[in-house]
Amino acid sequence: MLNVPSQSFPAPSSQQRVASGGRSKVPLKQGRSLMDWIRLTKSGKDLTGLKGRLIEVTEEELKKHNTKDDCWICIRGFVYNVTPYMEYHPGGEDELMRAAGSDGTDLFDQVHRWVNYESMLKECLVGRMAVKPALPKDYHEEKKVLNGMLPKSQVADTLAKEGCSSPSYDWFQTDSSVTIVIYTKQKDINLDSVIVDHQDDSFRAEILIKDYSYIIHVELSHEIEEDFSVRVVENVGKIEIVLKKKENASWKRLGHPLENHNSLIPRKDTGLYYRKCRLISKEGVTHDTKLFCLMLPPSTHLQVPVGQHVYLKLTITGTEIVKPYTPVSDSLLSEFKEPVLLNNKYIYFLIKIYPAGLFTPELDQLQIGDFVSVSNPEGSFKISQFQELEDLFLLAAGTGFTPMVKILNYALTNIPSLRKVKLMFFNKTEDDIIWRSQLEKLAFKDKRFDVEFVLSAPTSEWNGKWGHISPALLSEFLKRSSDKSKVLICICGPTPFTEQGIRLLRDRNFSKEEIHSFTA
Ligand code: FAD
Ligand code: NAP
Description:
single chain; alpha+beta; Flavocytochrome B2, Chain A, domain 1; Immunoglobulin-like; 4 domains; seven-stranded antiparallel β-sheet; six-stranded mixed β-sheet; globular; binds flavin-adenine dinucleotide; binds NADP nicotinamide-adenine-dinucleotide phosphate; cytochrome-b5 reductase activity, acting on NADH; heme binding; EC 1.6.2.2
């Protein structure tokens, strides 16, 4: 079922010519797909040349392994012999060689921070760099003061430099509850900024503050009920997480600190945090696209902000594979409601199944009741981009429609200044158009909204627009409601489509601030 990709890949206009992160994908030789790599790692072959031994690697030693035939790379303190992986790397050998014999962590983070390299490369692990891991500065002090008001967080300086005070937390209890209070001292905190998980023994709250995460992470000293409530006092940035005690005992301490507890960390350094979500339903939308509904565990509070994506993780033949997907609303026609914790337990995805793909056929095989891991949200889109907005233009191709769903719903419901919303939706054929009748109904229902379909491979019966994104199509489409109207253009689709679109928009003198492109 997971076919070996053809040698003609990628076709000149294929979405796969450029990978999701915007970097170039190279054609891989026959028998060198990711699935082939996974098979090789399971074959029992000695891929490091060290017969399973793990060694401490000095910097001098690492530097020696810097050729295509002998290439070691360090990522986050772990050293991998990536020589056998060269031919399987979707970004090509040259991209890997940029980090040969050195620390590739930054390069890795720039291109594919979300790829689960630990799992993909576990058979290539040579060992650790020979340096002692540094303990967090206040680690010991932290333990002593956990029960009660804590000192300033360890990385307070970082936010302070940006003119923000550092967050802190406190906790108090009644007979039946424990309330954790987090003082972010930020004004733009809302329920989307708070992610809470209680899994096994670990309680973890991550507060998203600008490009940082403030983390509370403890092994609770006593058991709690599954569900909890989260409240945000928005004007002062105070967050209250109310836990229900299982027993009425008095807690002497909140718990034992775990990794990154009471730390403010740049978001790019936090790593992706996952929870297992149950597949609730799966329903065909087009011949190859399905609407998946996942349910968050009761012990999770997570709301994916408009315009952001998450990563889904599945274990495929023993290897963890991660891919990004953009949650949508369950429909375009249901009124958009501000999410409320209790009825915000479902996440919907429109996902196209690629029969020869690595991830989507596995996802499609899942049965109702099976689990998929879902990460914290990521993405650069901000609701503030809608402020005072008058004209919203959406350019979507294929599943690039997914971020537009919540954007459309949100803008039409919450932005009083909005006069016009137009979607130009590019697809190959009529059969590929996702939610066509819903879009047409929405256009009928809301006079501010218009949709135009453009097909690249229409049948002779099609009498609508056809072709690829072009100056002619855009000049007609991008008519403002008034000369100086405040405008935002969102664009998403195969990377070459998005890049071409941005070029055309810039040629038409739209500023960078007026264009939002969606990428990984
Ligand atoms: P892949 O294994 O990536 O393959 C896709 C196709 O390319 C297959 O036909 C395969 O045969 C071919 N192929 C791949 N590599 C090669 C090769 N080296 N040689 C020959 N052929 C090859 N998708 C959605 O459907 N819905 C969403 O909401 C969504 N959101 C996204 C959000 C972001 C931020 C990004 C970046 C992407 C999003 N995507 C979304 C795309 C998604 O992440 C996956 O890329 C997509 O589902 C394909 O995954 P796959 O593993 O099944 O296919
Ligand atoms: P598709 O069906 O292959 O293509 C959709 C339309 O885009 C088709 O009309 C296609 O024309 C056109 N197109 C393709 N390449 C083009 C190019 N170079 N220039 C102009 N038009 C082009 O699309 P898909 O399979 O659904 O793929 C959707 C893509 O969107 C994926 O790459 C996915 O990763 C991306 N996506 C990104 C995000 C995000 O970043 N947030 C979210 C969702 C999806 P042809 O018939 O000529 O191919």
